[in-house]
Each structure stands twice: as C-alpha cells, then as structure tokens.
Write a structure and sequence with these properties.
It comes from Streptomyces olivaceus. This protein is of the alpha/beta class. Helix content is 36%, strand content 18%. It has twelve helices and twelve strands. The strands form two sheets. It has a seven-stranded mixed beta sheet, sandwiched between helices. Helix 1 packs parallel to helix 7 and helix 9 crosses helix 10. The radius of gyration is 19 Å and the shape is globular.
Amino acid sequence: MAVAKAINESLRRALESDPKVLIMGEDVGKLGGVFRVTDGLQKDFGEDRVVDTPLAESGIVGTAIGLALRGYRPVVEIQFDGFVFPAYDQIVTQLAKMHARSLGKVKMPVVLRIPYGGGIGAVEHHSESPEALFAHVAGLKVVSPSNAADAYWMMQQAIQSDDPVIYFEPKRRYWDKGEVDKDAIPGPLHTARVVREGTDLTLAAYGPMVKLCQEVADAAAEEGRSLEVVDLRSISPLDFDTVQASVEKTRRLVVVHEAPVFLGSGAEIAARITERCFYHLEAPVLRVGGYHAPYPPARLEEEYLPDLDRVLDAVDRSLAY
C-alpha cells in the first residue's frame, strides 16, 4: 500500500483498539486531510473521535495536552510543516516539559503528525524541514518513516508511547508503495536499520532522503562502488550504535537530509561519529542537505533539494581522501 494509506490504516487500527485515541486537526474529518491521510475515519468513528478543529495550531496542541492530562491519547495533525510554529511554545514549554515538571507523575501520550519536506511544488510555508528544532528539545521523541511498513508500525508505536512523539511524514513519499505486514512484530521505534549492505562508504538518511540514497547506491554500483545505506528512522533519540557499526566497516560516512546543513541533524551525527570512530575514519564525515536560506518558490526547489548528483559528488569527495 502507499505510505499515506499505511498511516490511515494504522490510525484506523488505533481508533478501533483504544477508545481513548482521538484524532484532531484542520480538515482531518469531512475532507479527510489535504493529503487524504485521514480519509473515511470521521465517517466510521464519528465527530467525537475524529475532530475538525479551528485554524489555531496553538489551541489544537493546547487542547491535546489537556486531553492527555485526562487520560486520552490524542493524535494531532499539523496540516503543513510551516504551520507548526504558532504551536511551538505549547510544544516546547508545555508538552515537552510536563513529564519532568511533575517528577514523572504525568504522562503525555500525544502524537503530532507533521507532513514535511519539499518535492511537491508547494507554495511558501508548505515545504519546511524543521525536525532539528524539535530534536533539540529534551522531552520530545522525533521520528520519520521512509516507507509504508515503517509508516504503519511507527505510528502504532508512537500512539502507544507515554511520551510525546513528533511524527514527521515525508509528503513527497506519500504515494510510494510498499508491502505492509499488519501481523509483523516491529522492531524498536528508535532503532536505525541497514536497508542496503555495502563496504566502501555509508550513507545515512531518514524520511524522504532514504529512497534517494538507495538510488545513489544503485548509481555508484554501476561504477564498481559498494555503498551501505542506513535508514535512521528516529532523529531523537538517535541510534548512533547502528551508524557506528556501519562506519567501522566502511570507514566513510555521508549524511543526507533535506533540512539545511547548517546546525541540522547531520551536524550532531557527524560530531558523534567522529568522536566514536576517529581511528576508523579514512575521510571526514560529509553532509548533504538544503542551503541556509528560506525554502525557495516551487520553480527553484529542485536546485535547493539534495539530488542524485549532489550526493554522488559527496561520495566522490569522500572516496578521494
């Protein structure tokens, strides 16, 4: 099934299995969301379980916090990545802090679904990648699936978590299809996964860039180079052990994400892996990402986003050391 359908099926399963699960957001009910991810859920579960909210992100998240305090498990949709900032104060000063503020007595089982990233030709404020802003905040879990199976199971695990989870959905991958085993036993939510074995260099990515890295590995294989691809899956906490094991084997690392390179998630990965693998590395850790500039108009986004050539260039530079 497609990634969007996998999330829909996962939400449906959660609504069926737990009467305390609620879905809230702008246009999530009658419309089924602008990407139709929640299509049909309000029809089947009613307006009390799938709630169309006012256009007020701060109010939506504040309401979700109150519901969580009363024992509910709200799943909140922020319609687009760039719309999350009116709710940023609620998220970082309330949602993220409540567990610590109460000395562990209060749980915050809230999931914030945020479609993010570019590649769909959208207008301003519709193609941001703000994941590093949330990963920097203690008390928040930050994850991003790259395929349909992970989209399904990571949503299940996020809803079951007693801690707040920011669930970034790569909107350019909504229509990518893959196998989903609804009876599988999923691995831990915050564990990275090697999705392609290799020996010459490691590519680490999450969300929308995992597919690109696999395409880069295919292109490099035609030139006789063997690239390993690691799907990070979780941005906070981050599974450094899996990345370290890969780098100790390949001795080179390139980190790829859509977000700007400057102070992005790749910076933390580069620093940690340099500390952990200093005597294994044969080249500095390189990063490929967006530029330190506002996201451009749709006509220019292909120049802004990492592509096959930019990642291959980083691979060439790494292998040249």
